[in-house]
Amino acid sequence: MKLIASMLLLAAAAHAHYKFPRLIVNGQPEAADWLSVRRTKVQNSRDNGAVSDVNSADFRCFGGSPGTATTTLAAGDTLGFVASSGIMHFGPCQFYMARVPDGADINTWEADGAVWFKAGSISAVEGNGPLGGDEKTWPAYHKNDVSFVVPKNVPSGKYLVRVESIALHLAQNPGGAQFYISCGQVEITGGGDGTPGRCAQSVSLDRPLLLLLDQAGAFTCRMGVSWHANGQS
Known about the structure:
Blueprint: H1 2-15, E1 22-25, E2 28-29, H2 58-61, E3 71-74, E4 78-82, E5 93-99, E6 116-122, E7 145-149, E8 157-167, E9 178-189, E10 210-213, E11 219-222
Parallel strand pairs: 3-9
Antiparallel strand pairs: 1-2, 1-4, 4-7, 5-6, 5-8, 8-9, 10-11
Family: Belongs to the polysaccharide monooxygenase AA9 family.
GO molecular function, one term: metal ion binding
Cofactor: Cu(2+)
């Protein structure tokens, strides 16, 4: 019986994993997986994998292979990612962008260091009490795709765009938060002259995900703010 129970738990855990294999622009998804989204390390449908070490190089794009395509869209458009089997863990969803330097190849650029800025998020809906673990608290939970509006004042150019779905079901433990990550390759047109503030890869030891567990078992969470179209955060 213990063996059967363990197998069922493992099967449930595998089923709860997911990935973001294609972009969606203004409500229109790409025609196939891994076109403008870099392939992540883990492709097995039984274990789609997550990153838990925020200091790992995988935290940039989850070890994505070189890209093969780039999607063009305008500043102010809605950009998002399709979740392969829906977002199966509760928690926030963050979007980061990193501008590809002039002369660099977007297909192979690593986006290492303080080149990212937070462009959007789907955070908790906070009420008068501690946060729960349902869709009312976490609007991204169980969604089949998640999106944000590209800031209108972001400079034109080529960008890597990273989605981070942060699973909090084990985040009361050190290193327990699971980051489901993908990076899309885009070219922004019609942009402005904004100067987004830079941060490191995202969450780091000196800018941690602050997660508290109260006595009732509910979470409170604080993350960095997004850069807005006027260049202020």
